[in-house]
Write a structure and sequence with these properties.
Elements: H1 3-15, H2 19-31, H3 38-57, H4 77-85
Helix pairs in contact: 1-2, 3-4
Length: about 90
């Protein structure tokens, strides 16, 4: 989808009454990604474990004063949340 068209649609939903509810329903019916399927969340959790394993392999640990830079949430906020749930400090 063209980002300009999507931005215009989201702006319109900000203006109309119940725009948040309409947005939620559109996401739920069009992408069928809300609520998340357990399989998808499991895959994202495994991806975050792989990220932390690679970080540790390269010598980093959460308590060693090393640095872990996470910019934005990427494609899915679930990976960033999963990293936090696995104990990586913010």
């Amino acid at each position: 989808m063209d980002w300009k068209l999507k931005a215009l649609a989201l702006h319109a939903l900000d203006i109309v009454p119940f725009g948040d509810d309409i947005h939620f329903l559109l996401q739920r019916k069009s992408t069928r990604e809300i609520p998340r399927r357990a399989e998808v969340l499991d895959q994202l959790f495994e991806a975050s474990m792989a990220i932390l394993d690679h970080y540790r392999f390269c010598g980093g640990t959460s308590g060693s004063g090393g640095h872990f830079l996470e910019i934005g949430a990427g494609r899915d906020l679930a990976v960033a949340l999963s990293l936090r749930l696995q104990g990586y400090p913010t």
